[in-house]
From TrEMBL:
This is Dienelactone hydrolase domain-containing protein. Keywords: Signal. GO terms for molecular function: hydrolase activity. Residues 87-183 form the Dienelactone hydrolase domain. Pfam families: DLH. SUPFAM superfamilies: alpha/beta-Hydrolases. It comes from the Bacteria.
Length: 206
């Protein structure tokens, strides 16, 4: 699937659009730190190809690019603006908007979801620094997080402490931990068929 390159938004992004359909689920994908900058061709260097290869049904996929030397947490409003534009201009199913990200993007996913939990039907952060103080805001958002047990970039406890915080407030959350895996847990996570069966079953309308 060849993406459109959108460069007129607050952040540039890639947009993957399948053949027209009545209503399509939407995935917002946030890349890691190595893909930051001003070259959209790098947005798909990690994780995105696995997502595109494993989609169980047609979906809109939005993959913005974070500026160099910045974090997604600096651009949460811009991400919401992009979502609004895509939903307004394409046949997106607003009840099936899914948020995921890896590493720096995993952190961005935790924080964007906490800022606007009502926007999303499910959350999939992969090896990202977490936000336990926001657990109460996220307790009604189905969440599946992934992490490598031997991650020495973002330690496993970033995910385990977030899962514990969510469980403490009655959240719906699960953690998949890969023994013997370092920071790159995203290749395995985004290749899990069960992930997509679960993800695409989530809907804000039940």
């Amino acid at each position: 699937m060849t993406p459109q390159k959108i460069t007129t938004a607050p952040l540039p992004y890639l947009l993957y659009t399948p053949k027209p359909a009545a209503k399509l689920p939407l995935i917002l994908f946030l890349h890691g730190s190595g893909e930051r900058g001003d070259d959209l061709d790098h947005v798909g260097d990690h994780g995105l190809s696995e997502i595109l290869a494993n989609l169980p049904e047609a979906a809109l996929v939005v993959a913005p690019q974070c500026p160099a030397n910045a974090r997604w947490t600096d651009h949460l409003h811009a991400l919401e603006t992009i979502l609004d534009a895509v939903i307004a201009e394409h046949p997106a199913d607003k009840s099936r908007v899914y948020l995921t990200g890896l590493s720096l993007g995993g952190q961005g996913a935790w924080f964007l979801a906490a800022r606007a939990p009502q926007r999303f039907a499910a959350l999939v952060p992969v090896c990202g620094r977490s936000n336990p103080g926001a657990a109460d805001r996220l307790k009604n958002l189905p969440t599946w997080t992934f992490h490598g047990a031997d991650d020495n970039i973002v330690p496993l406890n970033e995910s385990t402490k977030m899962v514990s915080a969510l469980e403490a407030v009655g959240g719906t959350v699960k953690l998949t931990m890969y023994p013997g895996t370092g920071h790159n847990s995203w290749t395995r996570a985004y290749s899990e068929p069960e992930l997509y069966m679960w993800l695409f079953a989530q809907s804000q309308t039940g």
